Amino acid sequence: MSNFSKTQRITKDVVWTDGGVVAAHHRTAAEVGAKVLAEGGDAMDAAIATSFAIGVVEPWMSGPMGGGMMTLWRAGEKRAETIEFGMKAPTGLQLADYPLTGSGGVSDLFTWAKVKDDRNVFGPYSIAVPGLVAGMELAHQLYGTRPWAELLEPAVALAKKGMLLDWYASLMIASVTRQLAQDKDAAKLFLIDGQWPNIAGWTDIRESRLDQSVMAVSLKRLAEAGPRDFYEGQLAEALVSDMADKGNPMSAEDLAAYRARASQTRTVTYRDALIHAPSGLSAGADLVRTLQQMERDLEPGDQPDGASFAAMAKALKDAYQHRLNHAGDEGGHIEAPACTTSFSVVDRHGNMVNVTQTLLSKFGSRVVSPSTGMLMNNGIMWFDPEQGKPNSLGPGKSCLMNVCPTIGEHQGRMFAIGAAGGRKIMPAVASLTSYMVDFGMTLEEAFHHPRIDMSGVSQVIADEDLSPEICAALSGVAPIQTAKRTVHPYAFGVPVGVMRDHDLNCGIAEIMTPWGDAALEADISDR
Description:
It is a single chain. This protein has 17 helices and 22 strands. The protein has helices at residues 27-38, 43-57, 132-143, 148-161, 167-174, 177-180, 184-190, 213-225, 228-232, 234-246, 252-257, 284-297, 306-326, 425-438, 443-448, 468-475, 521-525; strands at 21-24, 67-74, 79-85, 100-105, 113-115, 191-192, 196-197, 261-263, 266-270, 273-277, 340-346, 352-358, 368-369, 374-375, 406-410, 413-420, 452-453, 460-463, 480-483, 494-501, 504-509, 517-520. The strands form six sheets. The chain has a seven-stranded antiparallel sheet. A six-stranded antiparallel sheet has the order 9-10-15-16-20-21. Helix 1 (27-38) runs antiparallel to helix 2, helix 2 runs parallel beside helix 4 (148-161) and helix 13 runs parallel beside helix 16. The protein is globular and about 60 Å long.
């Protein structure tokens, strides 16, 4: 029996505008990007500013110590591109540091064989070489129009002020308090007296903020010295020293050698649409495989019915089975999926970008670099600790990610969508793509419509608002479990997107995210 109201309905309004729009999982970060657009910046300028701002106001999802990907669209050239900035294992990584226990799988995002003390999942041994700063560096070199330092100024200001600790922030911190307490620097940053989450009283309306002053100094250094300082300068030296003190083998050479790369998207036709899926070690290949099967088996119409949902579930199941067998992303039930962030930008000229960036797990490794004041990733968990597998752990290897930033073109409309949620990301992107292409939904309609998730392969998760007829059809594909679409935990991927219909733009974030929102350039200009 559920404790939640059955009569409550949550919606988010979508406003169309001839100006630019930024949709993100945090309203403040979206407003940072919208302000850049209002001041004449390009969509990529807004994306870079949003990336660093959201790492401050939502620090447990992403930040400079993480990685990710972006897929972009240049309207003037009518060209899509992916920029890859995933994490990499340190070259000094020793496989002997990850002994298998012989017992069951880990309890977070994947069900790999268990490693002693879960050291591939949390703690200093789980930290990979970060790529986000290099990704933003390359994006700025290729498409930026505003000075690098100017784009980081809002993040610096937000860190000086400190993240507001509201009820949602308290919930996030409380959910991992035990593990945060195991790293003295994480405990100092996030916990009271190093052990208690900061939770306001039932009727207490006093404002409480996180002390991010050390992070502010690091971001200011990054703004003034430039992105290579993170990999070859003062920030790099501080990071390597911190990692050595905590027992991680990341070296100065690992950082100096890191480069992001730009590559062609995986572009395919889907009925009368053109879909630009991400390249590289992403879920892009799985999205393409899913859409190709759906094009054969799913019948478009006015509204998705039982047959169309069953076809979608079967396509998702087959795509993930292929990934399990060939890409090594072997995993089962996801305990804490909302461990990534995603945001989309469209400017008044029609340039678009979706960025999906992550620390991997919520709060990453649960380790803070004391010299930089930033949470570290746990990218090593992306690797299978057993040797001889397609995605086995090894020194210097790149991480296989679940991110799926996607651009679509269909009948005069364009959209840029992505999601958070680990292996739930691609099903969310595939569902939204189908809703808009197969059933003609607007962005607003697509984001409000109930979805399914089939990333667990062995069962299909269905929104409890789907009809009994649809659930019956889904049960023919796999055993079905219904789930409520709620704030915590997320049973489905957590998407975000923007749309351009001829010369008008709009955006929206997952309706259940209490912080997620779209910010309009026009609203910023009017202030």
